[in-house]
């Protein structure tokens, strides 16, 4: 009986010791993993959405009509009103105020409701029918075009490392199925780390306009 009791004491003591985690047992590698998960946004770009290449848009109101265009320009600025409505001049002037930003790209996101369903998605390149049947999306590079020339919206085959999404056209199609304002955001990014695990942009270089269909 004495040996049985001794065995039980040893067994209980052993189990108890297994549950103790000593501070000195936590190595530097564990701390390093935690540090690497911290997202640091060092993007310096201020970006804005403009109407008629000159006026910063805060909230956009338009009649709820199908087969209608809504056109915005994108500039690296939040100035209320730019110097003039020359798109190339404004773009180059504002772009050249920064240095070492060649790796940054322009992206867009949309969020709205169709009855009880929330619809949201990022647009990182030409994706005309991403929001079919509600509206279509057309992207343009107005900067790399000869002055006075005719050009069309971008296709995926047109996109290169130098392509600039300097303007966007939202073509309303079936507006009766859009039952809320459209939250339209432009953002700039330079890698996958600028998006969270759900694909949402998490940087600070962004600007949002509420499009009200009345």
Write the layout of secondary structure elements.
Blueprint: H1 2-18, H2 28-36, E1 48-51, E2 55-56, E3 59-62, E4 68-75, H3 87-95, E5 105-114, E6 117-123, E7 135-140, E8 167-172, E9 182-189, E10 206-213
Parallel strand pairs: 3-10
Antiparallel strand pairs: 1-2, 1-4, 4-8, 5-6, 5-9, 7-8, 9-10
Describe the structure.
This protein is of the alpha+beta class. The protein is built from three helices and ten strands; from the N terminus they run H-H-E-E-E-E-H-E-E-E-E-E-E. The termini are far apart. The model is unreliable at 2-24 (pLDDT under 50).
Short description:
The protein is α+β, with helices and mostly antiparallel strands and 214 residues long. It has helices at residues 2-18, 28-36, 87-95, and strands at 48-51, 55-56, 59-62, 68-75, 105-114, 117-123, 135-140, 167-172, 182-189, 206-213. The chain contains 3 helices and 10 strands; from the N terminus they run ααββββαββββββ.
Radius of gyration: 26 Å
Structural class: alpha+beta
In order across it, which strands form the biggest sheet? 2-1-4-8-7
For the sheet with most strands, the description reads: 5 strands, antiparallel
* Molecular shape: globular
Give the oligomer, counting copies of the same chain as homo and different chains as hetero: single chain
User: What is the number of helices?
Assistant: 3
Order of helices and strands: HHEEEEHEEEEEE
First-last Cα distance = 88 Å
Which stretches of 5+ consecutive residues score pLDDT under 50? 2-24
In what range is the share of β-strand residues? 25-35%
Percent helix, as a range, is: 10-25%
- Mean pLDDT level: 88
Number of strands: 10
């Amino acid at each position: 009986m004495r040996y049985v009791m001794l065995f039980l004491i040893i067994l209980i003591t052993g189990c108890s010791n297994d549950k103790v985690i000593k501070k000195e047992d936590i190595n530097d590698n564990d701390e390093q993993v935690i540090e690497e998960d911290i997202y640091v946004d060092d993007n310096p770009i201020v970006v804005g959405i403009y109407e008629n290449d000159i006026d910063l848009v805060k909230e956009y109101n338009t009649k709820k009509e199908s087969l209608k265009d809504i056109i915005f320009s994108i500039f690296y600025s939040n100035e209320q009103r730019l110097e003039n409505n020359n798109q190339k001049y404004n773009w180059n002037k504002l772009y050249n105020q920064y240095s070492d930003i060649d790796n940054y790209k322009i992206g867009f996101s949309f969020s709205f409701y169709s009855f009880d369903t929330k619809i949201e998605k990022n647009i990182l390149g030409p994706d005309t029918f991403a929001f079919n049947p509600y509206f279509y999306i057309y992207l343009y590079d107005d900067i790399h075009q000869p002055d006075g020339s005719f050009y069309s919206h971008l296709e995926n085959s047109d996109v290169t490392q130098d392509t600039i999404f300097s303007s966007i056209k939202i073509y309303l199609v079936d507006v009766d199925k859009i039952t809320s304002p459209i939250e339209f955001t432009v953002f700039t990014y330079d890698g996958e780390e600028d998006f969270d695990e759900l694909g949402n942009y998490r940087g600070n270089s962004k600007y949002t306009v509420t499009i009200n269909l009345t």
